[in-house]
């Protein structure tokens, strides 16, 4: 069916795989940045279908997973206040904080609500003028524009009982941090297509040049991933390192100018801590001075929170591509999607959840013939 399976065609997948096999002559390590791409790769067994010379390293592109523990704990503290209606996308409710999660806060009487858009939270604020309504605004360049627009609307409409707890992150500084890490093995990147559909591609040529790595903007369907890998391997084998767009049906060179303008108006770049990784300079956004009144951290002055990560969780190593999820001792035993120790097991885009969901319980690959492409 058009739009549903046209990018999952097995015959085209075989042709792309043949092309990759014919091109590769030596080992290469590629990082897919986005957790959505990781799920496509694991779900369809793409990593197992590739020639053994190609290793796919899963990157830190799961927004829920990289939201720092301190911000989760701030969310929990704000959500527990009796005058607050705390609104969030559903996948944040089970992310463990230091000693509880948002589901626990709700079971203890907190007014925690799942919304499908930040504008729903703004509507709740209009309907409840006597309560403070807080939206949990997290994620990459993809979720930032609607969140920026919501704060813009709140200010324009004079809705004073709305605020946002912001923890937005940006991909290019993360690529820089990965490439400057002493343990880095990454030789090329599959960049996240949806991020580039907003931001365009002009942040990447300098990175490709400085670190001499191909960066190929890649989509999310199986054929998108294979085409991204094919183009990446071709560059690596030729000794090239350019930015290439393998997702032209969604990505333009300048991205979405209206969304970028909204981001520039509402947010300003700031240093940001990434869960399991640490602080990366200039890797996040916060509300700019003009919109600071809508910043929940300022409104509720939640400072001085002491955080404690579970000792058994190795999600930081997973997020940096240093280990695969099944190499964590807790994987599938004390840590499962039902009882997650870390955010990478909670989120629908987390690598640990993908490995558990699609039964990657060990390092032994299943026979290629037995692994369906679609
Ligand atoms: S399997 Fe669980 S404990 Fe291990 S790294 Fe993943 S989330 Fe953390």
Automatic annotation (TrEMBL):
The keyword Lipid biosynthesis does not apply. GO terms for biological process: protein maturation. One of its GO terms (molecular function) is carbon monoxide binding. Gene3D superfamilies: 6.10.20.100, HypD, alpha/beta domain 2. Keywords: Iron, Metal-binding. InterPro entries: Hyd_form_HypD (IPR002780), HypD_1 (IPR042243), HypD_2_sf (IPR042244). Belongs to the HypD family. This is Hydrogenase formation protein HypD. It comes from Streptomyces noursei (Streptomyces albulus). The gene is hypD.
């Amino acid at each position: 069916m058009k739009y549903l399976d046209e990018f999952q065609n097995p015959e085209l997948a075989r042709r792309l795989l043949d092309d990759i096999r014919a091109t590769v002559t030596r080992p290469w390590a590629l990082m897919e940045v986005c957790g959505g791409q990781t799920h496509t790769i694991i779900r369809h067994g793409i990593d197992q279908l590739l020639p053994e010379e190609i290793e796919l390293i899963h990157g830190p592109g799961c927004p829920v997973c990289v939201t720092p523990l301190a911000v989760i704990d701030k969310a929990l503290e704000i959500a527990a206040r009796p005058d607050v209606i705390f609104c969030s996308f559903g996948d944040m409710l089970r992310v463990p904080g230091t000693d509880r999660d948002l589901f626990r806060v709700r079971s203890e009487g907190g007014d925690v609500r799942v919304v499908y858009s930040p504008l729903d939270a703004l509507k709740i604020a209009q309907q409840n003028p006597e309560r403070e309504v807080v939206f949990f605004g997290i994620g990459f360049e993809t979720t930032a524009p609607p969140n920026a627009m919501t704060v813009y609307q709140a200010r324009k409409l004079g809705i004073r009982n709305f605020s946002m707890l912001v923890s937005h992150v940006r991909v290019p500084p993360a690529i820089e941090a990965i490439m400057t890490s002493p343990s880095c093995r990454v030789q090329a990147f599959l960049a996240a297509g949806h991020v580039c559909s907003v931001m365009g591609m002009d942040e990447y040529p300098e990175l490709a040049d400085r670190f001499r790595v191909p960066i190929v903007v890649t989509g999310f369907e199986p054929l998108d991933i294979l085409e991204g890998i094919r183009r990446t391997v071709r560059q690596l084998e030729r000794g090239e390192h350019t930015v290439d767009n393998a997702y032209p049906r969604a990505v333009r060179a300048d991205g979405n100018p209206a969304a970028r303008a909204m981001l520039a108006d509402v947010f300003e770049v700031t240093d940001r801590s990434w869960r399991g990784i640490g602080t990366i300079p200039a890797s996040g956004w916060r509300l700019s001075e003009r919109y600071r009144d809508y910043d929940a951290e300022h409104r509720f002055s939640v400072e001085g929170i002491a955080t404690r990560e579970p000792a058994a969780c190795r999600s930081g190593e997973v997020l940096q591509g240093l280990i695969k999820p099944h190499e964590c001792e807790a994987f599938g035993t004390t840590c499962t999607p039902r009882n997650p120790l870390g955010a990478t097991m909670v989120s629908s885009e987390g690598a640990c959840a993908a490995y558990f969901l699609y039964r990657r319980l060990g390092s032994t690959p299943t026979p290629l013939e037995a692994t369906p492409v679609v």
